[in-house]
Amino acid sequence: MRWDNLFDDLESQLEAELEADDVGLRVEEERLRLARLGLRDRLVAIATDTLGSDVPVRLLLGDRRSLDVHFITLGRDWASVNRIGGPSSYCLVPFAAISGIVLMRAQVQSSLASPAAPDTLASRLGFGYMLRDLCRRRTAVEIVQSRGEAIHGTIDRVGRDHLDLAVHEAGIARRERDVAHIRIVPFDVIETVRAAV
Length: 197
Description:
Elements: H1 2-36, H2 39-50, E1 57-60, E2 66-74, E3 78-84, E4 89-94, E5 100-102, H3 105-111, H4 121-124, H5 127-136, E6 140-145, E7 150-158, E8 162-167, E9 181-186, E10 190-195
Antiparallel strand pairs: 1-2, 1-5, 2-3, 3-4, 6-7, 6-10, 7-8, 8-9
Helix pairs in contact: 2-3
C-alpha cells in the first residue's frame, strides 16, 4: 500500500514538473515572438482591428502634436491615414515621425497579435517611392515638419533621403513665376505629407 502512495506521489510530481516546463516554454516562446514584433507589425494589427471601427488611433508626433487617425494603407516605413477632427483629410505619415501611439486598453492586446496581413505591394513600397509618385504626378502638397512648420509647394525631385520642394502658395498650380524658392527637405524632419486641395 505504501508503494502505491509513493508511485502516485512521484507521478503527480512528474506531471507538475512537466506542466511547469510546458508553461515555461510557452512563456519563453511568447517572449521571443514579442521581441521580433516590429512597429509596422503592431500598426498592421491595430489597423486590421480598427477596420470599420469608429475608434480612432492617436499618433503622437514631435513638438507635442497629435493626430487622431484611421489607417488606410501601411507601407514599408509609412502609413496612409485619414485624419479625424478638424478638416478630415488623407495624409502620409512616415514611421520615423511617430514618437508614440496612444491606444485604448482593448487595442493594446490586439496590437500584440501576430499580424496575418498578406504581403501586398504597398507593404514593400518605401516612403521615398510614395514621394516620387507625388512628384511624378506634379501634385501640390503640404508638408508639416517636425518643428510644426507647414510648407506648401510641389515636389520637384526626390533623392534617397531628401526632396526638393518648389515652395508656392497653397491652392495654386506650380508655375515658375509663382515659386518663391526651392527648399531641400530631409525625410527625417517630415511629419506628414498631404495632397493640397
